[in-house]
Amino acid sequence: MIQRMEIGARMSEVAVHNGTIYLAGQVASDARADIQGQTRQILAEIDTWLARAGSDKSKILMAQIFLTDLADFAGMNEVWDAWVVPGQTPPRATVQAALAKPGWKIEVVVTAAV
Fold first, then answer.
1. Parts of the chain with a pLDDT under 70
2. Per-residue H/E/C for the chain
3. How far is Cα 88 from Cα 73, in angstroms, rounded to an integer?
4. What is the CB neighbour count within 10 angstroms for residue 50?
5. How many whole angstroms separate alpha carbon 27 and alpha carbon 24?
6. Which of 23, 41, 61, 90 has the most C-beta neighbours closer than 10 Å?
């Protein structure tokens, strides 16, 4: 069985299947923030969605990070490093990409275990 949360016409925010949680790409609600502010907003959203699905950041299996400018890599990493659970850091990929809204500097997709 697949459980979906916040189902919309185009996408769901979360899908849970067979003990695995798939989150949609998370972006900042306030696109005026700098890279650290946007990263903090996104990581807080990830915490919220994982909790709603019965999990937490220590159970992240994979993270994909999309940055509009690789010059923001260090600033994003500073916030990321303070957020992840020591000894439970997930595999991660970070790439440069154009995002759908001009103000967005970062989008993060995670997959986690329940």
1. none
2. CEEEEEECCCCEEEEEECCEEEECCEECCCCCCCHHHHHHHHHHHHHHHHHHCCCCHHHEEEEEEEECCHHHHHHHHHHHHHHCCCCCCCCEEEEECCCCCCCCCEEEEEEEEC
3. 21
4. 22
5. 10
6. 23
Quick one: angle between helices 35-52 and 73-83, nearest 10?
A: 40
Structure tokens at 39: 């990263």
CATH number 3.30.1330.40 given to 2-113: yes
**Which pTM value belongs to this model?**
0.96
Task: Please give the single-letter amino acid code of residue 108.
Answer: V
pLDDT at 49: 98
Residue 85: both structure tokens together: 């659970």
In single-letter form, the type of residue at position 99 comes to L
Evaluate whether 66 touches 107 at the Cβ level (below 8 Å). Answer: yes
